[in-house]
Amino acid sequence: MDSEQLFTTKAELPETSSTAVVTMDPESSAPATKASQTRARMTSRTLTSQKTAPTRTAHSQNRPKKKGLSKTWKPYLEQFTLFPKLPIEIRQATWRFTLQPRAVEIAYTYNHGYYSHVGIPVALRVNRDSRNVVSLLYPLCFGSILHQPRIVFNFSMDTLCFDEMIWTELPKFLVSLGDVELKQIQSIAVDRFIDEARK
User: Fold this and answer.
1) Could you state, in order of their start, the residue ranges of all structural domains in the chain?
2) Integer Cα distance of 21 and 10 in angstroms
3) Could you report the per-residue pLDDT of 148-172, keeping only the tens digit for each?
4) Local structure of residue 41 (DSSP, 8 states)
5) Which residues, in sequence order, are CB contacts of 179 under 8 Å at separation 6+?
6) Which pTM was predicted?
7) CA distances from 51 to 12, 13, 17, 61, 84 (A)
8) Angle at CA 116, nearest 5°, toward 110 and 117?
9) C-beta of residue 6 within 8 angstroms of C-beta of residue 24
10) CA 49, 50, 51, 53: dihedral to nearest 10 degrees?
């Protein structure tokens, strides 16, 4: 190497992001090697490209692929056959959640006494299990001396309504109520007062 001049050539690899630096003998077109005693040496280095893609770690490679969401829409269940197998506390709480406040309008006839056209709660008509739970909350009320009580009424949820047809019978109705019923009534509505307020 004392009298020979060495020069360096760069060969860029188009398909990779690295550059190889090779030392060549100026009198030969082939790369110098130790076997040919050309005292040439070859060095290579890898240059990191600025556009190198991020390396996937072992954690990301082992990460399970997310499956696409199913496009098939499944409707809600129309039947739940496991309800009888639930604990009795859950079944009783479920039946109580079905109860809704009602406006119970009462009417009167001489032959039948006090009655109402408002339907009874659904839970009283489903099965024995539901009736046993809610029947205590809906006792038969508003009887008279001549007639047995026929109206199911929830004193804590329902509103007792009087129309104009029963207005003349209202004093008799109040007299016919027992002390227990009078103390438990919480909501009363009278259509006559409502109609006058609208005018």
Assistant:
1) 1-47, 100-198
2) 5
3) 999 999 999 999 988 777 777 777 8
4) -
5) none
6) 0.53
7) 15, 15, 8, 21, 65
8) 120
9) yes
10) 80
